[in-house]
Amino acid sequence: MTRYIRRASVFCLVLLVALLVNSARVMIFEADSLDDNPANRRNTIARYTQPRGNILVDGKAVTGSRDTDEQLRYERTYREGPLYAPVTGYASQVYGTSLLENAEDDILSGTDPMLAPLPLFNDLTRSQQPGGRVATTINAAAQKAAYSGLAGRRGAVAALDPATGKILALVSSPSYDPGAIAGTDSATMSAWKKLNRAPSQPMLNRAIRQTYPPGSTFKIVTAAAALDSGLVTDVHEPTETPSPWRLPDTSTLLRNEARGCEDASLADAIRVSCNTVMAKLGVQVGLKGMVSTARRFGFDDAGVRIPSGVSRSNFDTDMDRSQLALSSIGQFNTTATPLQMAMVSAAVANGGVLMAPHLVERTTDGHGNTVAQTGSKAYRQAMNPATAVQLQELMQDAVENGTGTNAQIPDVAVGGKTGTAQHGVGNKGTPYAWFISWARSPEAGIAEVAVAVVVEDASANRTDISGGGSAAPIARDVMEAALNSAAR
Amino acid sequence: MGPAGTRAGVSPPAVPAVRLPRRRGTELVLIVLAVLLSVYGYCAVGIAKNGSVPPDAAGYGAGLGVLALVAHGAIRLRAPYADPLLLPIGVLLNGLGLVLIYRLDLETPHDRAAPAQLIWSTLGVALFIAVVVLVRDHRVLQRYAYLSAVAALLLMVLPIFFPAVNGARIWLRIGGFSIQPGEFAKVLLAIFFASYLAANRNALSYTGKKIWRFQLPTMRVFAPILVFWLISVGVLALERDLGTSLLFFGLFIVMLYVATGRGSWIAIGLLLAAGGAVFVGALEPHVNSRVQDWLHPFASIDAGEGPGQLAQSLFAFAAGGMLGEGLGAGHSILIGFAVKSDFILATAGEELGLVGLTAIFVLYALLVERGYRAGLALRDPFGRLLAIGIASIVALQVFVIAGGVMGLIPLTGMAMPFLAQGGSSVVTNWIIVALLVRISDSARAQLLPDDALEAHR
To answer: B376, A8: Cβ pair inside 8 Å?
Structure first.
């Protein structure tokens, strides 16, 4: 019997070995694929076991975390959610993340390897680093001025520091409270549905994700092309332009809203916003020159990231001369995000060098030690420095004596350009009122803020809507707020 | 009877009259270690979940310690030559089981299982002491072979008359208590098998017709055992308790093989098993679905219904990795139903890792090995078969349930010995350890000179 007992014991040993080998299979060799199975909730649970790192504006957190004591423990909260929603985006336990919450998710959730004290530290210790912080470039005063200026009307504001590319304000209106969709309860679900169904699209970030026909504000780009190409050497020399002007190769007459555009100089055309002069200059520069200038300002670039992606602003590359004429005054297929038009203004203000726009000043670990710092770097040389100086004068003239008088700030050099863009079938849609501008306080050698404002105002009289009326005051308030807080 | 036979032939004077070491001190040290480990685990859970040592940690340790020490005292008194590893392994596994159940209780505040488990453990230790004290010689049990058989059958048949719980009719519910009589039945069956096989093993081995190369036993000897086996398996199929069915069958085969040494038994057994498995798997939807789950653990995820229990169990083991998440830091509660009973091992795997799980398997393996060792050392066939039988119960049960929750074999509902929530199971396991203590004591005590042996008895 002893022999059989020994054999039976070998059988038991085989069972033990089978169990151990199978354990190694499940727990070591197949562990990664099991861990990453989308139906495995552990990754989701781990993500919310600690408070998410905060997003800072002027050094103060505009986000927070709430301990729900549920399975997904910490839930995102937002201070002044609607005001900063176009900056932060949302971090929802159900619907994922957007904008900065999305772009800097690794830092905020603590999974970024840069947050660990040593390489592979997190893997070895199975620990999670506390969430890092993201300090934005946003200027709270400018942001608030833009938000209250829009006052719930559909529109957007983007403000830049022309010398660095820092985004000082990024507002989209109407906005929403991302805190309402942060959790997992039924209120979250209904809030999400409501926000997605709303015709005003409150979750659309109009400042970087919506393109509008830029209208007359695009004339700055056309003027830069005319000056850079040498087509115009003296901005005060009259151009031989009839008013109205017949679009090339068509019988369509292009008219002006403004008076005194017949044979107007480039300076006069910018000051009072002459369609005819600028359309004709665009055609004279030619398709190639217009496209290359527009691209130097950032048009047609789908890769702009702040770090969230910015929608591509469009300037067509294949057009006949009449289409080019309309495109040169910001109509036809030309479209731009508000951030793109702020970049146009900033390039002029910064002497022709367009700095890369960015929203993140620096990221830190949970204790405030810097992980990464976003340096200022040039995006492109948008135009010759001389051209920039000439355009600065023209834009200043438009604010002092032309269409942009609503943007004047006492004792501050302000340059601007109005725009009114029609859209919709037969141009029946509510027009977009545009204003782009920059401001330079007397003691500063260089402009400290550049702004683009777009407002859609259905309640206003259509003929009354112009960039000068609706948008310029908002731009002025934003610039003033930025200058005041910079001076402090 | 190879070596044992020769040893039996040696006359008593050849055995030197040295004092046989009792090794009770070793046992005591190991018990203290087992209790300390359990208390450490209990504290680790509290610190991980609430940031503080549970207020009743000392009480828990004291309770477990007193139970273990009383059991140790009973061994000192009545089984002084017993194997010193058996009781500490039981204490450690039982203590660890309480820790795991307590840890899962923290996730289900309205459904606390640990207090009841502690009461059952106390009852289990009480029965352990009763067996060690009352059963002075394991050979006494041989007298009750047929009584055991009848009792085992009764215990298995009873639940059929009670309502099914979660698809299986294996429970007796009386008042607030629920008992799983099949758990007790397996020990009784082992006693019956051991006794019957010990009495008839020669007849079983050497008689009967020969078909091809297989020597068949005579029907006279074989019929009773086959009938008994058919009844028990039939009853289990009716109760849809596949795990216990598999366990009984495996037990039957192992004991039959050890008793007769005939490979033909294994062949017949495997044929019967394969036939039964195909038959039941095809006809019985409850069993069929278990097989489908085993073959395709992630089918429900692909179907958009979320992960099933087995998938959740595999996720838990995978999350454990090499070193585990740490006690209290895992999420095995996602398994949901039966997380404290059938799936308790997943919590051990997730929170203690492959290292901890291996340690647990090694503890079980040691328990089995000690049983086999006692079986090898004994001289009487009944004792040998009984030792092998109850040790094999542990081995098979661990394999069936651990293999099931880890996707090695189809999942069948069973309790992980000592670890899982379940009163009948923990009580039965203490009885098993008590029987092993008794047998190992006999195995060593037989080395004593005759006069000392008389004194021992």
So the answer is: no
What is the distance of C-alpha A406 from the center of its chain? 25
Known catalytic membership, residue A441:
no
The residue of A3, A27, A70 whose CB has the most chain B CBs within 10 angstroms, and thus the best one to mutate to test that interface, is A27
Tokens (6 digits) for B282: 């095809």
Tell if the CB–CB gap between B384 and A15 is shorter than 8 Å: no
Q: Is A43 helix (H, G, I), strand (E, B) or coil?
A: helix
Token pair recorded at residue A122: 């997190």
Residue closest to A455 by CA, chosen among A250, A156, A228? A156
The values of phi and psi at residue A371, to 5°, are: -100, -45
Cβ of A28 and B321 within 8 Å? yes
Residues of B in contact with A18 (CB under 8 A): 399, 403, 408
* Cα Rg of chain A, angstroms: 28
Whether chain B has a CB inside 8 Å of the CB on A7: the answer is yes
Average pLDDT taken over every residue of chain B: 85
Kindly indicate the confidence band of residue B10, based on its pLDDT and cuts at 50, 70 and 90: very low
Q: Does A6 touch chain B (CB under 8 A)?
A: yes
Give the pLDDT score at B7.
45
Given an 8 Å threshold on Cβ–Cβ distance, is B372 in contact with A4?
no
- Residue A14 neighbours by CB under 8 Å, 6+ apart: none
Eight-class DSSP state of B210: E
Beta-carbon separation of B257 and A8 below 8 A: yes
Element containing residue A6 per DSSP (H, E): helix A2-24
User: What's the confidence (pLDDT) of residue A444?
Assistant: 80
For the domain made up of A208-363+377-487, the CATH class stated in words is alpha beta
Angle between helices A140-150 and A81-88 (to 10 degrees): 110
Which residue of chain A is at minimal alpha-carbon distance from B261? A4
Q: What is the ipTM of this complex?
A: 0.90
Contact B280, B313 (CB under 8 A): no
Backbone angles phi, psi at A419, to 5 degrees: -160, 145
Which residue is catalytic, options A216, A265, A273, A345? A216
> DSSP assignment of A331-386, as one string?
-TT-BB-HHHHHHHHHHHHTTTEEEPPBSEEEEE-TTS-EEEE----EEEE-S-HH
User: Chain A partners of B205 at a C-beta cutoff of 8 Å?
Assistant: none
Would you place residue A460 in the very low, low, confident or very high pLDDT band (cuts 50, 70, 90)? very low
Distance between CA atoms of residues B67 and B95, nearest Å: 11
pTM: predicted TM-score of the whole model, two decimal places: 0.75
The C-alpha atoms of residue A95 and residue A87 are separated, in whole angstroms, by 18
pLDDT of B367-412, one tens digit each? 999 999 999 999 899 999 999 999 999 999 999 999 999 999 888 8
Are B318 and A34 an interchain contact pair (Cβ–Cβ within 8 Å)? yes
Strands of B232-334 (E only): list them: none
Pairing of strands A96-97, A133-136: unpaired
Cβ within 8 Å of B, A 35-94:
35, 37-42, 45
Name the band, by pLDDT with cuts 50, 70 and 90, for residue A368: confident
Q: What residue type is B436 in one-letter code?
A: L
Give CA angle at B232 (B273, B258), nearest 5°: 60
Tokens 């001369």 — which residue?
A321
